[in-house]
Specification:
alpha/beta, 502 residues, 20% strand, three-stranded antiparallel sheet, elongated, 41% helix, eight-stranded parallel β-barrel, 17 helices
Length: 502
C-alpha cells in the first residue's frame, strides 16, 4: 500500500511565522496517527534544547502507544552528531539529508562527490551500529535530474545496496511539472527496482498535487505531505487534496480516515496561526457551498451538480450561499435546513429580498433568513422573543471590564451587570446570569472570528462571526457594525432568538 508520510511538524514548521509548542506537537502527532498517517517527520535534529525535550516527550508517548516506528527525524551528514541527538530523544529513524545535485555538493559543501559519498557511508554504518533506521533525502534531486543526472546515478549506484530503508526524492525548489516528474521517477524506479522511493513535492508553481499524482502513476512507493499545505515558500503538497486525488482520481486505497481530515486541519490551522483559504479544496470554508441558483436547482433534480467530493465524506455538510446570484432553489435549500415552510408566493417575496440585499453587497447567511422572512411577510420587531434593549460596556486600566445589560425575553424586562476577561465576555456573562435565573439553557461559544475588509480603514465595517453549539446543533451567527463588540452583540441576539425555536 502507498505510504503517506506527513511532515507538518518538520517541513511545515518551516513556514514563516510558525512554531509549535510541545503540547501542540504532541497533540498533532496523536491526531495524525489516529487519522491513519503511516509515518511522521516530527523535527530536525540539533534545533534547540527545547525541541530536544519536546521530541523526547513525544517519543516516550509513542513508545508506550506502540507508534515509535512511525516517528522520523531529519538529520545531517555530520559525523554522528545528529545520530547522537536522535538516539538521546529515544527515536529510532533518521531521515538523512544528503545532496541530490552536483551544484549543491560542489558549491554548498565545497566537496567532491567522492568525499560526500564517504561522509554519507560513515553516518549510515554508525546509525546501523546504534540500531537507528536510515531513510535518505537526496536534497535538490529535481535539479540533479535536470542538470546533473550522472551525479544522481553515481550516488544511487553506490548507495543502493547499503542499509537504507527508503530513498526520498525531493523537488526541493518546486520546479518540476507532471510530465518530468513522471519521467524522472520512472527512470529511477526502472534503474533501481529493488529499492523503496518516496517523492517530496513543493508547491511553488501550484503543481505539488499534480506532481504527486504523476509520481504515484510512475510507481513511487511513498509520498510526503503536510496538513493545509504548510511549508517553506509556497508550501508542500496538502494532505487533504492529495488524499482526495488518490482516492477518487486514481482509485488508490490509503489508511487515511477521510472523516478526520477537516477536524485535524482546523486544529493545525489554530496551532499554526495560518488561515486556510476559503476556497482551499476539501477543507476550505466555501468548497461545499453552492452559490448559483441553477446549481441548487440541479441538486434538487437528482444531484446534477454533485461530484464525488461529498461533504459528508469529510465530516462536513453542503451549504447554499445567499446573495444576488441566489435563485429560489438556494433559498429553498436554506429554508428547509431551518425547518421552515413557505408557500410559492412567499418564497418569491423572500427570494427577491435576498437578491436585493445581495445587490447592495450586504452579507446574508442562513441564520439571517428567519429575520428576512419575518420582515418580508409583514412581521414586526415585536415578534422577536429576545431583544437586547440597551447596554453599557466599561473598560478601565487595571480593572476587569464590566457590562450592564437590559434585555427583553418573552416581553419581560431583565437587567444585569457582570464583569469578564473582556468587554464581550462581560456582556455574555451578564446574559448568562439572567438565563441561569430563568433556568434557560445557554449555548456554548466554540469560535469567535472578526473579519475586516482588506485595506479597511479604522472606520471600516467589521463582521463578527460566532460559532455556537446548542445541544447537538452547531451553527454560526454574524453581526455587522463599525464596532466589533457591537457586531458581536448583534450576532448574539440572533443566536438567542434562534435557540428559542430549537
Amino acid at each position: 500500500m502507498l505510504e503517506i508520510m506527513d511532515t507538518t511538524l518538520r517541513d511545515g514548521e518551516q513556514t514563516s511565522g510558525v512554531s509549535f509548542s510541545t503540547q501542540e506537537k504532541l497533540s498533532v502527532t496523536r491526531l495524525l496517527i489516529d487519522m491513519g498517517v503511516n509515518r511522521l517527520e516530527i523535527a530536525s535534529a540539533k534545533v534547540s534544547e527545547g525541541e530536544f525535550l519536546t521530541i523526547k516527550k513525544i517519543a516516550e508517548w509513542a513508545k508506550v502507544a506502540g507508534h515509535l516506528d512511525k516517528l522520523e527525524i531529519l538529520g545531517f551528514v555530520d559525523k554522528g552528531i545528529s545520530l547522537n541527538w536522535i538516539e538521546n530523544t529515544g527515536c529510532k529513524t533518521i531521515n538523512l539529508l544528503t545532496k541530490g545535485s552536483l551544484k549543491h555538493v560542489t558549491l554548498q559543501l565545497r566537496k567532491t562527490p567522492e568525499q560526500h559519498l564517504k561522509d554519507i557511508k560513515y553516518d549510515i554504518f554508525l546509525a546501523q551500529s546504534k540500531g537507528i533506521s536510515v531513510n535518505m533525502y537526496l536534497e535538490d534531486w529535481s535539479n540533479g535530474m535536470l542538470n546533473s543526472p550522472d551525479y544522481v546515478y553515481y550516488m544511487l549506484d553506490n548507495l543502493k545496496d547499503l542499509p537504507i530503508k527508503r530513498f526520498m526524492l525531493p523537488d526541493t525548489l518546486g520546479i518540476l511539472n507532471p510530465n518530468n516528474t513522471k519521467e524522472f521517477c520512472t527512470q529511477i524506479l526502472t534503474r533501481y527496482p529493488k529499492n523503496h522511493f518516496d517523492f517530496h513535492a513543493h508547491n511553488d508553481y501550484d503543481l505539488a498535487v499534480a506532481n504527486v499524482m504523476s509520481a504515484v502513476e510512475a510507481g513511487i512507493q511513498g509520498i510526503h505531505v503536510t496538513m493545509n499545505g504548510l511549508g517553506e515558500r509556497a508550501g508542500n503538497a496538502p494532505l487533504p487534496s492529495v488524499i482526495a486525488v488518490l482516492h477518487d482520481q486514481m482509485k488508490i486505497k490509503t489508511t487515511i480516515n477521510e472523516k478526520m481530515l477537516n477536524k485535524v486541519s482546523r486544529v493545525v490551522e489554530t496551532y499554526s496561526g495560518q488561515t486556510i483559504s476559503s476556497n482551499q479544496p476539501v477543507i476550505g470554508e466555501n468548497v461545499f457551498t453552492q452559490t448559483a441558483g441553477i446549481h441548487a436547482d440541479g441538486d434538487n433534480k437528482n444531484n446534477l451538480y454533485y461530484n464525488d467530493l461529498h461533504p459528508d465524506r469529510f465530516g462536513r455538510i453542503r451549504e447554499y450561499a445567499l446573495g444576488k446570484l441566489s435563485g429560489k432553489a438556494n433559498i429553498k435549500k436554506n429554508i428547509e435546513a431551518l425547518g421552515i415552510e413557505l408557500d410559492e408566493k412567499d418564497m418569491i417575496k423572500v427570494t427577491n429580498r435576498v437578491i436585493e440585499l445581495g445587490d447592495r453587497k450586504e452579507i446574508i447567511t442562513q441564520e439571517d433568513l428567519p429575520f428576512i422572512i419575518s420582515d418580508v411577510l409583514n412581521s414586526n420587531e415585536n415578534e422577536k422573543k429576545v431583544k437586547i434593549l440597551s447596554y453599557a460596556l466599561v473598560l478601565s486600566k487595571g480593572l476587569h471590564p464590566t457590562a450592564s445589560l437590559r434585555m427583553e425575553i418573552d416581553k419581560k424586562i431583565f437587567e444585569q451587570t457582570a464583569s469578564g476577561d473582556g468587554q464581550y465576555d462581560a456582556f455574555f456573562q451578564a446574559i448568562s446570569l439572567i438565563y441561569d435565573k430563568l433556568n434557560k439553557t445557554k449555548p456554548i461559544l466554540t469560535n469567535y472570528r472578526v473579519i475586516i475588509p482588506l485595506g479597511g480603514q479604522t472606520d471600516a465595517l467589521v463582521q463578527t462571526v460566532i460559532s455556537w453549539k446548542f445541544h447537538e446543533n452547531e451553527f454560526k451567527t454574524r453581526g455587522l457594525d463599525a464596532d466589533q463588540i457591537e457586531a458581536a452583540i448583534k450576532a448574539t441576539e440572533k443566536m438567542l432568538n434562534l435557540i428559542e425555536s430549537m
